[in-house]
């Protein structure tokens, strides 16, 4: 083989390699484009669970889930609902978050959406119900279980009507879930699929019944409307049935209607197309990648702490702990319990997105002023009153932000009554127990002062000398032992002779010996 042939074969081989590389490059690009197209066609769906009682702590969890879905540009959010209801103000915050969501929302009534749960479901773009599930019975009740007044019923009725109207659902059906005084009926003489559904006052119902305009009564006077899956579908209040979230996803598609993305069932898409409504199919939710939002530990704590009963209990224990600590020498277990309970009270409400930092600051400043009044300034005056007002104001702010006014007053009253009752028991029972006395003595031994060598009652009517200024609290030498004492409100200078006038529990009260 001559040199020219060798060169020709080499050039030909080089060209062949170039062609192969070009073909591989084009093939790779096409494969990548195909993969990206497949990935883009797979929907991302976020699932947010609404379980148990609805409270302020749940709002933070739901807001976080909606925000995560929006940041991830998810195609839909499913609210998996099974709840007996809950607090009205928390429900208002939750439905406001749902209204503002930039992602299509679907309520999946898994087992039950009662009371506040039904309002949340109605606020979503779509309602899907599991067989055997129920929704409704939304009348507000007081914490005591008694029926709420007409003002509260009217407020909830307005809220649920507004939610139904916003999502194109029958307002009268929604109102019948709230107001027992309404009669929900199906009217005669209409050509619509199910007739016209209307909620009537009893006097209106009687007139139309006499006129023969009523086809049937759906919910009678004195009853709260509760819908089963079949009822909700029959009256057009729910959009679809599904036995699981997977089945729900399989029947929904994301479409674009006038520049806005919506989640619709295949039947709803067909109906809109038959009505000549312009829409563009984007993707199916079948086979979606699902992301289930889990409740964090902090949110669990917030949900637990912000329940009214736990809040009142923490407030009572915190206040009692601090009061006992103020009456005992040194710093020990009561103070730790008091500070911990109050920290949980304010911290839990802060986690629940209630801006309680100013309330906590007001409480701490108020407590400082009260302690300053008790231990530094003789008597009780402006500082003490201002301290009490600041503490009460901080607590009232938290309860006012968390609950409606009546609930706030009720739970504050319960907390104060519990604080007073437990405080009386603690102040008059604990100091007389041997275990408590040993505990307090061991606490004081850890401080800079020497503990009394005998029970404090032994110091009654004895004399001694103040070794620190008493303003009105301080330290004195009595029978050769350093004892934490307090005056009856007046100042006593250092090295002044004193006399023990009485002993109340762990409190040694002294007065100056007049020379």
Task: Give a description of the structure.
- With 515 residues, the chain is an alpha/beta fold.
- It folds into 5 domains: 12-41; 42-178 and 224-293, 2-enoyl-CoA Hydratase, Chain A, domain 1 (Alpha-Beta Complex); 181-222; 297-432, no CATH class; 448-512, OB fold (Dihydrolipoamide Acetyltransferase, E2P) (Beta Barrel).
- It is 49% helix and 22% strand.
- It is built from 17 helices and 19 strands.
- The strands form 4 sheets. Strands 1, 2, 3, 4, 5, 9, 10 and 14 form an 8-stranded mixed beta sheet that branches.
- A hairpin with a 2-residue loop joins strand 11 (252-257) and strand 12 (260-265).
- The longest helix is centred in the N-terminal third of the chain and has 39 residues, at 3-41.
- The radius of gyration is 35 Å and the shape is elongated.
- Residues 34-40 and 441-453 have low confidence and may be disordered.
Keywords, separated by commas or semicolons:
single chain; 515 residues; alpha/beta; 2-enoyl-CoA Hydratase, Chain A, domain 1; 8-stranded mixed β-sheet; 5-stranded mixed β-barrel; 49% helix; elongated
The name of the CATH architecture of the largest domain is: Alpha-Beta Complex
Number of helices: 17
The oligomerization state is single chain
Stated plainly, the CATH topology of the largest domain is called: 2-enoyl-CoA Hydratase, Chain A, domain 1
Cα-atom radius of gyration: 35 Å
Low-confidence sequence ranges? 34-40, 441-453
Helices and strands in order:
Blueprint: H1 3-41, E1 44-54, H2 56-71, E2 76-86, H3 88-100, E3 105-114, H4 116-123, E4 126-129, E5 134-136, H5 150-166, H6 171-176, E6 183-187, E7 197-200, H7 202-210, E8 214-219, E9 226-228, H8 229-234, E10 240-241, H9 245-250, E11 252-257, E12 260-265, H10 266-274, E13 280-284, E14 289-293, H11 297-305, H12 308-327, H13 333-351, H14 357-375, H15 382-402, H16 405-429, H17 434-445, E15 463-466, E16 473-478, E17 481-487, E18 497-504, E19 507-512
Parallel strand pairs: 1-2, 1-14, 2-3, 3-4, 3-5, 4-10, 17-19
Antiparallel strand pairs: 5-9, 6-7, 6-8, 11-12, 11-13, 15-16, 15-18, 16-17, 18-19
């Amino acid at each position: 083989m001559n040199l020219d042939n060798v060169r020709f074969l080499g050039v030909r081989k080089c060209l062949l390699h170039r062609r192969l590389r070009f073909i591989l490059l084009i093939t790779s690009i096409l494969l990548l484009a195909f993969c990206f197209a497949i990935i883009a066609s797979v929907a991302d769906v976020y699932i947010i669970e609404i379980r148990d009682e609805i409270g302020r702590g749940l709002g933070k969890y739901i807001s976080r889930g909606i925000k995560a879905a929006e940041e991830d540009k998810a195609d839909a959010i499913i609210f998996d609902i099974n709840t007996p209801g809950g607090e009205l103000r928390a429900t208002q915050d939750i439905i406001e978050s749902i209204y503002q969501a930039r992602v299509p929302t679907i309520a999946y009534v898994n087992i039950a959406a009662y009371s506040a749960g039904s309002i949340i479901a109605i606020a979503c773009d779509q309602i899907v119900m599991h067989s055997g599930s129920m929704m409704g019975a939304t009348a507000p009740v007081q914490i005591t279980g008694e029926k709420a007044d007409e003002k509260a019923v009217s407020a909830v009725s307005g809220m649920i009507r507004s939610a139904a109207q916003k999502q194109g659902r029958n307002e009268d059906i929604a109102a019948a879930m709230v107001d027992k005084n309404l009669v929900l009926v199906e009217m005669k003489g209409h050509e619509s699929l199910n007739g016209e559904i209307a909620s009537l006052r009893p006097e209106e119902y009687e007139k139309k019944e006499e006129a023969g305009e009523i086809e049937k009564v759906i919910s009678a006077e004195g009853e709260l409307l509760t819908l089963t899956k079949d009822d909700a579908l029959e009256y057009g209040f729910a959009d679809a049935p599904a036995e699981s979230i997977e089945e729900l996803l399989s029947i929904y598609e994301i479409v674009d209607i006038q520049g806005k993305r919506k989640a619709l069932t295949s039947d709803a898409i067909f109906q809109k197309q038959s009505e000549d409504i312009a829409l563009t199919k984007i993707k199916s939710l079948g086979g979606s990648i699902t992301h289930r939002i889990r409740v964090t530990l902090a949110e669990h704590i917030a949900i637990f702490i912000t329940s009214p009963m736990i809040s009142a209990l923490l407030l009572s224990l915190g206040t009692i702990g601090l009061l006992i600590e103020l009456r005992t020498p040194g710093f020990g277990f009561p103070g730790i319990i008091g500070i911990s309970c109050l920290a949980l009270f304010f911290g839990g409400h802060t986690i629940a997105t209630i801006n309680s930092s100013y309330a906590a600051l007001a409480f701490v400043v108020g407590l400082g002023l009260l302690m300053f009044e008790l231990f530094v300034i003789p008597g009780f005056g402006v500082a003490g009153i201002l301290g009490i007002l600041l503490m009460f104001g901080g607590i009232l702010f938290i309860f006012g932000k968390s609950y409606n006014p009546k609930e706030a007053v009720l739970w504050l009253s319960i907390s104060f009554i519990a604080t007073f009752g437990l405080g009386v028991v603690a102040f008059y029972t604990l100091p007389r127990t041997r275990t408590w006395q040993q505990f307090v003595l061991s606490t004081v031994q850890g401080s800079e002062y020497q503990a009394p060598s005998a029970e404090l009652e032994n110091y009654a009517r004895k004399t001694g000398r103040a070794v620190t200024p008493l303003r009105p609290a301080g330290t004195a030498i009595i029978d050769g032992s350093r004892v934490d004492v307090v005056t009856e409100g007046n100042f006593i200078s250092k090295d002044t002779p004193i006399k023990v006038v009485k002993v109340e529990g762990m409190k040694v009260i002294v007065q100056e010996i007049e020379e």
